[in-house]
Amino acid sequence: MTNQAIFNLLGIAARARKVISGEELVVREIRNGNAKIVLLANDASKNSSKKIQDKCTYYNVEYHVIGDRYDLGHATGKEARVALAITDQGFASKLSSLLNEK
């Protein structure tokens, strides 16, 4: 149930244009300080995973590993996505509370 709520909220955030997807774009948003929370697919390559996790740690951005690339893509209405960055504080707070209670 919690995963479904997370994916539903991701869909709403995507329709509000508060989601950045794609590895390079997510890394850029983390560097610029716009990413409030980052979601990473559990089937991301080791290289992509390490790069995003290291950036999140360095820039102090919360990140979570959830679902696979098709789950993240489907939730945002796109093809497979390995990484998503939420740029809105409200959506990020709600996602954080849902992810941390899980």
TrEMBL record:
**Record-linked InterPro entries:** Ribosomal_eL30-like (IPR039109), Ribosomal_eL30-like_sf (IPR029064), Ribosomal_eL8/eL30/eS12/Gad45 (IPR004038)
Q: Indicate whether Lyase appears among the record's keywords.
A: no
Domain Ribosomal protein eL8/eL30/eS12/Gadd45, by residue range, is 5-95
A Pfam family it matches: Ribosomal_L7Ae
Gene3D superfamilies according to UniProt = 3.30.1330.30
Q: Does the keyword Nucleotide-binding apply?
A: no
Q: Name one GO cellular component term.
A: ribosome
Recite the UniProt keywords alphabetically: Ribonucleoprotein, Ribosomal protein
Q: Please indicate which superkingdom the organism of origin belongs to.
A: Bacteria
Question: What is the name listed in the Swiss-Prot or TrEMBL entry for this protein?
Answer: 50S ribosomal protein L7
Q: Which organism is it from?
A: Lysinibacillus contaminans
Q: What is the lineage of its organism?
A: Bacteria, Bacillati, Bacillota, Bacilli, Bacillales
